[in-house]
Specification:
The complex is a heterotrimer of chains A (433), B (290) and C (320).
Chain A lengths: L6 H13 L17 E8 L3 H17 L3 E8 L1 H13 L6 E4 L1 H9 L21 H6 L1 E2 L2 E2 L1 E3 L5 E6 H7 L10 H15 L4 E3 L6 H10 L15 H16 L6 H5 L10 H4 L2 E7 L3 H6 L5 E4 L21 E4 L6 H13 L1 H8 L9 H10 L2 H14 L13 H13 L5 H17 L1
Parallel strand pairs in A: 1-2, 1-3, 8-9
Antiparallel strand pairs in A: 3-11, 4-5, 6-11, 7-9, 7-10
Chain B lengths: L13 H31 L4 H4 L13 H8 L5 H32 L5 H13 L2 H14 L7 H8 L4 H12 L4 H8 L4 H12 L1 H17 L2 H6 L8 H8 L8 H32 L5
Helix pairs in contact in B: 1-14, 3-14, 4-7, 4-8, 4-11, 4-13, 9-10, 11-14, 13-14
Chain C lengths: L1 H7 L23 H29 L2 E2 L7 E2 L3 H8 L2 H32 L6 H13 L4 H11 L4 H8 L14 H11 L2 H13 L2 H9 L4 H29 L22 H11 L3 H29 L7
Antiparallel strand pairs in C: 1-2
Helix pairs in contact in C: 4-8, 4-9, 4-11, 4-12, 5-9, 9-11, 11-13, 12-13
Chain lengths: 433, 290, 320
């Protein structure tokens, strides 16, 4: 689409604006016509590659279904959450939109989105999909969203740094004690401005895995807290100890690094060897550094305790359908096309950076995908050998609560016990709503 | 130099030239501090992604101009679309604010009317409310007017003087203009409309230019309103175009993001550079020099 | 036009503000018809666009409202909770007041100082003016966030310099001790807007007054004290009031640190940031609206005090 800045284009834009008519110059919405079904698809994209492929598959769909017009309304995640909340509150929710696990619970609970069980398995057959991802897209036992991709928690590991420091990376099934010992060795090997692992004390998923290693979990299936205060105290104490042994950076150095933004991470800045995050960030991290990065599992237990694979996979991005949409049938058909039409699925996934949620899709990627794709799929396959119980929906603002308490400890304002109490107090207040 | 008159009496004396040398030195050091981060942006925008955050030097070790090509082309739409949308909206915002706010400011500064103080206080109140608190009722309002996904919610309010900042700004400037001028015109039989048009507006040029520049820049930079009111991607403005690039999980976003961030500043800089000259020349045209 | 200006302008430059306006005569008489004609756009905007959402937000402040289901009337509960049960609310007040008290005077001092400097007949004036305005052009964009980190973060330029002297500096931007001050520094760095307004104000001072003063033998200090400063007071007042309002509402600067979560450990939890978190992260729009109205009260009080004080130090050209 090239827009020439000529007078006609200006006039057209002027007319659009003045008349308020939805005249669109996007190829997916070629003209304004009364007889067409107009489907608004709002979402967040987490990479340029994903945006390109998503627009391509939607365009392909409208070419095959000239009676349908799809209006793409994509933006990044931060902007999307504000936009979708405003539109929904204002009575103008799009027909279909993207959600993650937390948003899904918020929107499903309040009746904004509609259960999709009646469309499963026909035309949407999820039997080949990662069951943990399918389950994580449920609320109150009903399927509220269709998972678009597969992600899992992982330690993004700088193999070059391990080599340089002469430290061996322990095997996949390792303990929290081993992580601490390995991390603390880096500061001695590579100098005072290098730390083994970035602080994950404010990070939801590692905390959940840590709790599960203790036989607990962050939430239970029936939406209650799944741990005791001393479990959470142990979590904050674990990271406090790591700070003391210089295995993890001090509070001020760590605070800038949001764990999902590679540009602020210690790995990219060249002062950390491990960062606990999710597999979908891997390509983003790798792009910003010349070092060789690999994926490694988090610890799965404690020394002397039960070792068991506890990493669950889920979808970073699922599609949900607005309860008020008059076009639900068309929306379902668009989802079907994106996921199950051979040509559609190929357009949607190949080159998008997303790992398909279906076994067939992942197998195809394992042969043809990019190097990053293949590393992620190999890692997810390891997790699937012994699937863990799924992630249960939490409450909004979890990361904020965990991080505040962790930073309270890191900056010496709270003891691990006080931090645990503060966190539990804040989460409990939310759970009551 | 357009305002050389200020110093013309002294400019040739040696003492003053030493002084001006010192001033220049201070200004240049200050200017460097001011633009260091921009230099970083410029340099990073031509680096390959794996050097942007890991190599901190200002001189790019390897050049990658492709960032600009990729960013401009965009994954969804070319940046020309976003620039065009932004220019249309900002252009109308300038006209709306200059016209409407100067009218309202004139009334508040020069005319006496019932409830003046109350209405002025009400106007000030509208700038005190945080944006996020009125966003949803306002969205519902524009949605019910059928204006969502048009430029109207971003333009019409400017013509209805909702930017109290500029009203207050112009009130202060008008009140700085001696009232003797209005009174002389009244004696000559001029009414409020003529006084507004032929006395106040010309003398208000510095404030009008300031309003125009700020209206353009602030509308161009606005993120939240376009985000919620312009839903389909072909209506996105420049900041929304940038936010599409701001998706950190992919492999190819950072270079184009920084390249387009720098490019998006160019129109702002040009507008400012051109208008700041008008700010000076405008005054010469009003005859205030005497 | 220019004839009128020539005849009427060189009046006494320093006017005493103490005299209030005389009884309404001539031009001072009520002129409702003309006034409401000039006010008509604003009145239309107020009635049709602005007032409704403002009143709605006040109503919502008295409800429990999660944005997607109908609001429930709860009276003053939100306000009570804010006052007695929310320690983070007090933290946000503390952060915001610190920011206002530091950033507003510093920013205005810089803006006025540089504007005075730039108002002289300097070579390359347009260049300097533009360069000094550049940082303000960046607003709260991504670019400025990334750049500010390049300066004040652990790996930033300041620590690179300190390292040359063997000092391992902290991460200034994310230490609970310094984070807020780096944001104050950012506000001061972006002094461009008040500077431009000061420049416009300086331009509006008629040259004749300076010329007349020069004939009387006034030096540059006296010209500044008895002409520039008094005639600029309406603009100083404007910048002062608007900077205070703006600083109380500071929102975007916090996005530079910790992605707008107010970190580290709530050290940069601005009032409006916390309000936003309540509304758009926690879906507590009723509580957020109540916070908004308390902020209106605080800003309103600050503004009212400013306006009262203005009687004693602001000199208007229209007062005699």
């Amino acid at each position: 689409m090239s827009v020439h800045l000529n007078r006609r284009a200006l006039l057209r834009h002027g007319a659009t604006m003045m008349g308020g008519a939805a005249l669109s110059s996007l190829p997916l919405a070629s003209s304004f016509a009364q007889d067409k079904v107009r489907v608004r698809f709002a979402g967040y994209v987490e990479s340029q590659e994903q945006l390109t492929q998503t627009l391509a598959v939607l365009k392909l769909y409208t070419q095959k279904h000239p009676n349908v017009e799809i209006i793409p309304e994509f933006t990044n995640f931060g902007a999307f959450t504000d936009k979708i909340a405003t539109e929904t509150a204002g009575g103008n929710a799009p027909d279909m939109f993207s959600v993650n696990v937390d948003l899904l619970a918020e929107y499903a609970r309040r009746g904004v989105t509609t259960p999709l069980d009646s469309y499963i398995p026909n035309p949407i057959n999820l039997s080949d999909y990662l069951q943990s991802a399918v389950n994580a897209a449920k609320f109150d036992g009903k399927q509220f969203a269709i998972p678009n991709d597969a992600i899992g928690p992982a330690i993004i590991t700088n193999a070059s740094a391990f080599e340089k420091a002469g430290i061996t990376l322990p095997p996949e099934m390792w303990t929290w004690e081993e992580l601490a010992e390995t991390a603390s060795a880096f500061n001695k090997a590579l100098g005072p401005r290098f730390w083994g692992v970035e602080d994950a004390g404010g990070n939801y998923i590692p905390c959940d895995i840590f709790l599960r290693s203790r036989g607990k979990s962050m939430f239970t299936q029936d939406h209650r807290l799944g741990f005791a205060p001393e479990d959470m105290e142990a979590w904050y104490a674990y990271w406090q100890k790591l700070r003391e042994t210089r295995g993890t950076p001090p509070g001020d150095v760590q605070a800038l690094a949001g764990n999902d933004d590679p540009s602020t991470s210690g790995i990219v800045a060249g002062r950390a060897a491990m960062n606990i995050t999710l597999t979908d960030s891997f390509a983003g991290f790798q792009a910003l550094t010349q070092d060789n990065l690999i994926l490694h599992m988090m610890p799965n237990g404690f020394r002397g305790g039960e070792m068991k694979q506890r990493h669950y996979c889920y979808a970073g991005n699922s599609t949900t359908v607005s309860a008020k949409s008059p076009n639900q049938k068309h929306v379902i058909d668009i989802i079907r096309f994106m996921h199950f039409d051979p040509e559609g699925a190929k357009t949607y996934y190949v080159g998008s950076g997303m790992i398909p949620c279906s076994k067939a899709g992942r197998d195809a990627f394992a042969a043809t995908g990019s190097e990053a794709d293949r590393k992620i799929i190999a890692y997810l396959d390891v997790l699937q050998k012994e699937p863990a119980p799924p992630r249960y929906p939490g409450v909004p603002g979890m990361t904020g609560m965990l991080t505040r308490a962790n930073e309270g400890v890191a900056f010496g304002k709270l003891t691990p016990k006080q931090a645990a109490e503060q966190f539990i107090r804040e989460v409990s207040a939310r759970l009551k709503k | 130099m357009t305002n050389a008159a200020t110093t013309s009496h002294h400019a040739r004396s040696i003492a003053i030239s030493w002084q001006s040398l010192a001033i220049h030195a201070c200004l240049i050091i200050g200017a460097l501090v001011m633009i260091y981060p921009l230099l970083w942006l410029a340099s990073s925008s031509v680096k390959p992604p794996n050097l942007i955050f890991s190599d901190l030097s200002l001189w790019p070790a390897r050049l990658r101009l492709q960032n600009y090509v990729d960013g401009w082309r965009g994954a969804a739409l070319p940046f020309s679309t976003f620039f065009l949308n932004s220019f249309i909206i900002s252009g109308f915002a300038v006209i709306g604010n200059v016209l409407a706010c100067s009218m309202v400011a004139y009334a508040f500064a020069r005319l006496n009317f019932a409830l003046k103080k109350t209405l002025f206080a009400l106007m000030m109140l509208t700038i005190m409310i945080p944006l996020h608190a009125t966003l949803i009722p306002q969205y519902a309002l524009f949605y019910n007017l059928g204006w969502v996904n048009t430029f109207l919610p971003l333009i019409v309010p400017k013509f209805l003087a909702v930017d109290a900042f500029f009203i207050f700004l112009m009130v202060q400037f008008i009140r700085g203009i001696p009232r003797e001028l209005d009174e002389a015109a009244t004696v000559d039989g001029a009414g409020p409309i003529r006084i507004y048009w032929s006395i106040i507006l010309p003398l208000l040029t510095p404030a009008l230019v300031t309003t125009a520049v700020f209206s353009f820049i602030w509308t161009y930079e606005d993120f939240l309103s376009p985000l919620v009111y312009l839903t389909s991607m072909d209506k996105y403005t420049v900041p929304q175009g940038l936010s599409l690039l701001m998706s950190s999980k992919g492999a190819s976003s950072w270079g184009p993001l920084l390249a387009m961030s720098l490019l998006s500043l160019v129109p702002l800089f040009l507008v400012f550079f051109i208008f700041q000259r008008r700010l000076i020349e405008g005054i010469a045209a009003t005859g205030l020099k005497g | 036009m220019s004839m009128i200006a020539q005849e009427k302008l060189p009046v006494s430059a320093t006017r005493r503000p103490a005299h209030r306006q005389r009884a309404a005569v001539g031009i001072n008489a009520n002129n409702n018809a003309a006034a409401f004609l000039f006010l008509s756009p604003w009145i239309l905007g107020m009635v049709c666009l602005t007032l409704g959402p403002i009143l709605a937000s006040f109503y919502l402040s008295l409800t429990s409202y999660d944005m997607f289901t109908a609001p429930q009337w709860i009276g003053l509960d939100n306000y009570v909770k804010m006052a007695f049960e929310d320690s983070r609310y007090y933290q946000s007040l503390k952060v915001t007041f610190t920011y206002v008290f530091l950033s507003v005077p510093l920013k205005l001092a810089f803006a006025l100082g540089i504007a005075m400097l730039l108002n002289r007949g300097l070579r390359g004036l347009g260049f300097y003016r533009s360069v000094f305005y550049l940082p303000s052009l960046l607003g709260g964009s991504v670019a400025v966030a990334i750049m500010w980190r390049q300066v004040f973060s652990y790996d930033g330029i300041i620590n690179q310099i300190l390292l040359k002297f063997g000092i391992d500096g902290p991460s200034w931007i994310t230490s609970t001790d310094y984070a807020l001050y780096t944001l104050v520094a950012l506000a001061v760095w972006q002094f461009g807007s008040p500077m431009v307004i000061f420049l416009a104000g300086l331009k509006q001072i008629p040259q004749d007054i300076y010329d007349a003063a020069e004939v009387d033998g006034a030096g540059s200090v006296r010209k500044f004290v008895s002409i520039t400063l008094p005639l600029l007071t309406p603009i100083i007042f404007f910048n002062f009031v608007m900077q205070i309002i703006g600083a109380f509402q500071a929102f975007t600067p916090a996005y530079i640190i910790s992605g707008g979560k107010g970190g580290p450990a709530d050290a940069t939890l601005f009032y409006t940031l916390y309000l936003y978190e309540q509304a758009f992260t926690n879906f507590q729009m009723g509580y957020a609206s109540a916070m908004a109205w308390v902020l209106v009260g605080i800003i309103g009080l600050a503004t009212a005090i400013s306006f009262l004080s203005a009687r004693y130090w602001v000199h208007y050209g229209d007062e005699r």
